[in-house]
Amino acid sequence: MDLLNAIVALANFVILPGISYGSQLALGALGVTLIYGILRFSNFAHGDTMAFGAMATILMTWWLQSLGVSLDPLPTALLALPVGIAATALLVLGTDKLVYKFYREQKAAPVILVIVSMGVMFVLNGLVRFIIGVDDQRFADGARFVISARDFKEITGLREGLAIKSTTVLTVVVAVIVVALLFWFLNKTRTGKSMRAFSDNEDLALLSGINPERVVMITWIIVAALATIAGTLYGLDKSFKPFTYFQLLLPIFAAAIVGGLGNPVGAIAGGFVIAFSEVTITYAWKKVAGYVFPSWEPDGLIQLLSTDYKFAVSFAILIVVLLFRPTGLFRGKSL
Amino acid sequence: MKKLLLASAATALCANTTFAGGHGEIKIGVFLGFTGPIESLVAEMGPAAELAIAEVNDSGALLGGSKVTAVRGDTTCVDAAAATAAAERLITSDGVKGLVGGDCSGVTGAALTNVAVPNGMVMVSPSATSPGLSHQNNEDEGLFFRTAPSDARQGVVMTEVLMELGIKEVAVTYTNNDYGKGLADSFQAAFEAAGGSITINAAHEDGKADYSAEVGALASAGGDRLVVAGYVDQGGSGIVRSALDAGAFDTFHFPDGMIGTQLVDNFGSEIDGSSGQHPAPSEELAAKFTEVAGGNFDATSPFAPESYDAAALIMLAMQAAGSAEPGDYKSKIMDVANAPGEKIGAGELAKGLEILANGGEIDYVGASDVELIGPGEAAGNYRVVGYEGGAEVTAGRK
Fold first, then answer.
1. Is residue B102 reached through a cis peptide bond, with omega within 30 degrees of 0 on the bond before it?
2. Does A304 touch chain B (CB under 8 A)?
3. What would the pLDDT profile of A262-284 be if each residue is shown by its tens digit?
4. Domain with B262 in it: what CATH number?
């Protein structure tokens, strides 16, 4: 019984939050890794692209909600997603035409593109705040829980509760579908193959008649879709506030680099590695230990690092990986 | 540049000779953050202090008909160097006889140690709440007072509220800044002294979307109730949301930063059974002060009543001492603020001055129910709140 309590407590506070956070990071890191693989620069504007996508989705959701449209028990935001994706795709294609294309034609060094993307980031930053404001926005509706902690305790009679949020389930399901679609697209379709060819060897791809502008356009559209989905899921599961997307940039890049930049499988693995290390290293194990070893009464909380150091964990992993395996766990491109 | 310097030096000299030591004129510095992070609050606090001065001037009863002039100085709230320079200017150049201010704790401390104490100047702050400004060993030479309670006081009040509810074991999370840390530490000291135990005292950062890791640690430590010393429009609400979602805590205790309509809007009946407290004058006093303010400023704005009281205390103490010199009246501030004596409310300064002139005693109540304790700081009046059926209810006063 005690062991069961320990497992439930662990699932409630470590495993479930880790899985949903990991899926959100993985979706974000996939976008970063695609841009790096195909357009060959680190897109610092990705966090704010996610914020923009989520914002567009939220505005659409509000409109749908005001019309009384609902997907109950699923959140209305799912219906609004296609519109959000379209708006974000238009935005990134516009930025590409206005900004990145100029530098691409000049064959600018990647470091210049990185700085340019930072400029785009600041503009997007301002744009999102200008449109929707800096405050928390609520747009989640539908059922909050698949099972709430209180219900779980009543049903099972355990001392520990396990809350399964519907957004957690939704995040995982959507992430699995999106990743499956992406891999099918990259590996099975002609366009996907041309994208991979372009990524592997640009000159060879051009010689074999691949239209580079088309590859770039499709990459941006996919990235817009990934960013919007990741942003919306994060907003649904946690809360939408423009500033938090800016902060997400660090763990997303850490995930992409740890997994191996340019490698989609690596991005997903990296997302989960980062998410679980952040959660487990800052978790206080006192309660779980109390169940597993009932006779042991620890004085402290058995916490390796205070939760303040969450971001430091991503940094530390990033540095260790870069030192010992610069290409990442899954052999991406080295920086 | 040299010319400019000369010119400004000359102007400063002129200002000195023209204005200093005018006959029957007393200057009082209104030393608040007219620019900076709390400028919106000061927009109400400054006029409140100046209202007390105008009231005394209208009465003509201060020290045989002396007129009081308010001189503004800007503390900026955050820039200690600028605040020190402004205080220096008020004291040495303008020749003020007392300072209403500073406002934020950091600049107030800087101006006090660098300027006010060396010059023997009385400071009465309406809004500095840091426990660090409680000078138990007379480091301030009896010159510093405040009409706002110290955050340490809230820790004690919070302990009393929880003890009365029979809660002996709590987890604490605080927003990672001077306010949160000061409050959490003073609460921990008071709660443990009262026989309670604190399972964890952990910080949270504001402005994050995800607090599941923080709540994981808090839940692991356990406790009957979670004390959230944060801000309702920042991480505080995030912590509560996450704790409710994970089933980590059902009831909470909220200090002043969390109390507000937004809390009820955010959580409704989910936080039923929780408790909290925040400093607030009684409704009668608030209504009376609104009447006195007469629409010149927002009398319910935070620290506006305290600002009025700070200015009033300085002038009443001058009257009691029969002198406008800080060295003479500093010892009278506690006398006029506390019993025994006739109670003097907001808008009754003329009456108070008259009683003092005739050798009587007063107990200044003012706009914020002034009662100075310890080293000269307000005891504070706290409203204890509870949450029932998705609404905030008054559960008592402390």
1. yes
2. no
3. 888 889 999 999 999 888 888 88
4. 3.40.50.2300
